[in-house]
Amino acid sequence: MTKRSKSSGRWLERQRRDRYVAQAAQQGLGSRAHFKLKQLDERFKLIAKDAVVVELGAAPGGWTRYLATHAARVIAIDILPMPNIAPNVTVLALDVYSRDFDAQLASWLGVRKASLVLSDMAPNISGIRAADQAATMDLVDLATAVAHRHLNRGGHLVVKMFQGEGVDAWLAARRKEFDRVVLAKPDASRAQSREVYGVAMGFSGKADPCLAAESEV
Ligand SMILES: C[S@@+](CC[C@H](N)C(=O)[O-])C[C@H]1O[C@@H](n2cnc3c(N)ncnc32)[C@H](O)[C@@H]1O
Asked: Looking at ligand 1, which atom is closest to the CA of residue 124?
């Protein structure tokens, strides 16, 4: 087999990436983030027509646009403000670390729990790898705690993370709570990036006691 040179590998990767960027521009989708969610949805059938979705880290709205046309209701949350894009979308400018986050989300959800919790949240990157990984896994744990409190039995959780410390422990803990748990890397995610998505399907309704105890503090 011929070994591919580093520069031809980089060229192929650039072409692949540019394909998604060009498609996003042509279709007015803002960014290629849209394709990551589309590919995850096509592979795992995450979004039913009657889905109620809590989306964390929604700005600038690539995923939200996809969700608006595939789900019944979307609560799109980000620290950064973003415009509302459809009548079935509620945009909330909220920090997931804020004290009243849970109460606010509960009041917007009302009696119906979510069928899907998505997190594409990412911290501000400092360049110090260990610190960035810890900050990312902190957001992952917060998103997981949101799922514990607001996800329906049978619902799904998808969280962005970066390959490294904490990922295996997260997968092991979720396997105690969900029917099926996998790590997925959509084609639209850059090959050189450590970005992956933890996909947990079929929530049992019971949280792993360790994380549940932590999130009560
Ligand atoms: C990669 S971007 C999300 C892109 C988005 N999924 C899209 O398709 O356009 C990550 C987002 O996470 C948000 N974020 C980071 N920390 C957050 C926090 N503590 N609370 C809410 N949002 C946060 C950032 O403001 C940023 O908009």
From this structure: 15
